[in-house]
Amino acid sequence: MTIETQHDTVDVRRRIEELFGAERRPRRRMRRLVAGATVVALIGVGSGVAAARAGSDPAKRYRTATANVGDVAARWSGVASIEPVSGAAVAFPTSGTVATVAVAVGGTVAVGDTLATLDSVTLLAAVHESEAALAQAELTLSRALESSSTTTTTTTTKPATTAAQGSAGNTGNGSGTGADDDATRPSTGTAAGTTPAASATSTPSAEDLVADQRAVDLAAAEVAVAMQSLAQANIVAPINGTVVSVGIAVGDTVTAGSSTQVITIEGSGGFEATTVVPLTDIAKVRVGDAAEVTPDGSRRSLHGEVVGVAATPNPSSGSSAGSGFRVTIGFAEPDADILRNGATASLTITTGAATRALSVPTSAVTTRGERHTVTVLRSDGTTDDVTVGVGVVGTSRTQITRGVSAGDRVVLADLDAALPSAATQTNTTSGAGSGRGSNNGGPGGGFSTPPGFGGRGPGR
Fold it and tell me: Most buried in the list 146, 271, 336, 459, measured by CB within 10 Å?
């Protein structure tokens, strides 16, 4: 009976295979073929990505420029007012001791001729002192900013409890408190009887940071004034004319802007241009700098030069009083046809120039404090951050004094780098600490999420 049942079962299975097996097997084969094709397709895609990465061209990834030799110029541009002038009483804009007097009564002078000079030793010492004060103020601010993100943890040690002593004694030699055993047992974590205190963040207040920043700004302003005083150690003729009086002599101590210690010049009539240069730029402007003046409504430009820089801020600078200094431009050959009393003009002062100098695009130079770097693309596709020395810094080109050579390719942009705006937006919207490494608080890294602003803090 059992045998018959087994035969019946086999017959049933055979019948099922005869009826349905022929249809199911092709389907299984088709599934296997489809799965195999999918695997092949995935492998093909992965191979394509790998090939693309392996064959990426650094020349396409980086936007570069070549360091080359040429002329570099730094310029300041502004608006000037035209004023007629027929005489001038020239005084030193800064205090000091007269070192030389180059003119005498009856002598003729031209625009830009030196009239007298001051002893520069004391003025140079003032520059060094102001620079040292600025460095100290910057250091104080830097330390305050660092401590604002520093968290300190303190620990307090408490006497061991009776239970702990009893337990320690049981592990010892059967007597005493077991202190000897504890002393020789290696520490595996927080010591017994020692509890960490709550974390305390030692941060300067917002008022402290504001005060430190103001100290830096004030020190920077004092450096600018000291450098400007050094640059004003000589006075020049603002007009063409004849010297009619000399009110100073070698060895005299003069005060800034004196109305009596002056050299007076009379001319046959002419014009000068005046402008106001802000405090942030005044240190770049020096007596003798070349200037180009284009009166409004004229297509012609007149060549001139800086003949005077005020030592004190211009009191008539409106809402920004105290932030600008009066600068005077003289013309060796004033043209009365295009210069009109009270007219305005476009002004460009060349504050620095270098001929046949090695230079790179200004956008390629990264400056952090006193350190300047450029990224150089090597022939093998690698990049190096190179510290360089800079000279004249122009709007488009910067003079390089050391660090790179003519023909070197410097990186202007990494086209594969994430856009800063994208990283900032991602961090501000989520703040989740999914970045890796240190200081990668936001997704993708870049900067850490400030404490108390959500997110999970620094990345893992």
Answer: 271
